[in-house]
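User: Structure please.
Assistant: Input sequence and predicted structure:
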Amino acid sequence: MLDTILILNLVKHAGFIVAAAFILLAIYPVQRFGTKNKSYLNKIFLMCFFGFFGILGTYSGNQIFDSFANLRAMSIITAGLYGGPLVGSGAGLIAGLHRIIIDPWGFSTLPCALATLFEGVFAGFLSLKFGRFNRDWEIAAVICFIGEGIHMGMVLTMSRPYSDAVALVRIIAVPMMFINPIGAALFIHLIKVLFERREEMESIQAQNVLTIATQTVGHFRAGLNMASAKKTAEIIYSRLSVAAVAITDNHIVLAHVGAGDDHHLAGEKIRTVATRNVLLSGSSIFHTSQKHIGCNVSTCPFNSAIIVPLKKKKHIIGTLKLYGSKDIALDKIKLKIAQGLTELFSNQFELEDIQTKESLLTRTKIRHLQAQINPHFLFNSLNTIACFCRTNPQKARDLILDLSSYMRKNLDSSRGFVNLADELKQIKSYLAIEKARFGDRINVTIDVKKGCESWPIPPLIIQPLVENSIKHGILSNEDGGKVEIKIFKKNNMLEVSITDDGAGMLPEQINAVFLIKDMESQKEGVGLINTNLRLEQIYGPQHRLTIKSDPGKGTFIAFKIPKISFKT
């Protein structure tokens, strides 16, 4: 009879613990802590979180023979599987110390406390060794069953008198060895479902951003004006759940779509105090009260606003505003979306700025820039990112950052010189996007000797050569290939070489690189020809490219450049 009552009591309390964990994990601030966050603060939080439920598991059981039939293991095993050895041992230590504190002289106190610590460490090292495989609920149940079996063995070997230990284990072994595994399985499955749901929501938001970016990518190329602002605001309003979207320059409202359009009118001076503050400070704001928004119309429907500055390089040229009302609330996710959109928009503004300076640049540089900012590359990249949105949201976010960095560096290529370190960042951003598209077909190694990072070089002088080796070299092979980049200093020169094992070049193709002096009609081999022309123009003919290639075997390209002082 006691076994039945004990089992029912443990089942009831196991359900209570899982329900309490579900409520806590559903709270937004708690959701910020997850297994993908590797910070020490996050690990401390997870130790305390699972340690608390381990303590709760002690109080959820029955007191039997001056000991406790408990549910500590279900929480501590989960801690180890999700957080690894550090979190598992930390949570086990918290729950184990609590077991000692509440009953310091109990005959089973020490083995129970040590068993709790062991279970956390045991689960943690299994997670470290086998990864996500051990985060399935079936595996969690098996590990917890083994852990509780060892727990019973420790009670028998360490508790005295032995007869009391045998009597205790006879009563609690079956309930604890079956209810704890069931609880651990529920705990693991709960966390898995919650985080999968969160990732799904994040992927939907990322998909929205990509859709907006794709649809608005061309509008701002004509500059920030009322026509481009209206089209962009309409697209954002149709894709995001907001009360209104507005875009301003430094003085007037360029577009306002949604609620409040009876007094927030396009063409009129900026009405809200909050917008003027953003234009002055250059920092994003998220206000959640009508008072802080500062609209001078008493019937204004907005009670929250996200206002993000629009920039061209470091200069503020306007704002993007998302408004919320009592029916449509704003949140921090929309703040991140707005900030991400303004980063993409700033790329377009910089492109427009470069186009207005066309008369000040040589046609070679302009053609080179246009070749680099290839619409096909941009849209292929966006499609690749879109594919990752549902399967791997974190990868999608990382690729958005790589694409933004790649575009920004391209648009800033009118500078005279950059540090080699900046060029390497550009190359890595490009490679991250291409590897996302083509996977293991691209294998690139970069060997940069110490002390080379600060060497001044023309912008986009290496990246086109790497792109050429990938597009026209290794991707010509079905299985792809390898590209090796080597950079070192020798005899006061920076020596750069790019080697691939791809399709190679014919002798006439190599000769064409050095014979062509006009980029106007050139459509193929732009990267090699442009780079060679720029090297000759800047450093002289003695610094032209060195190209060695065997068709079907690969290509070797190298050049040397002296050090030239420049100001960043």
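Residues 358-364, 366-373, 519-523 have pLDDT under 50 and may be disordered.
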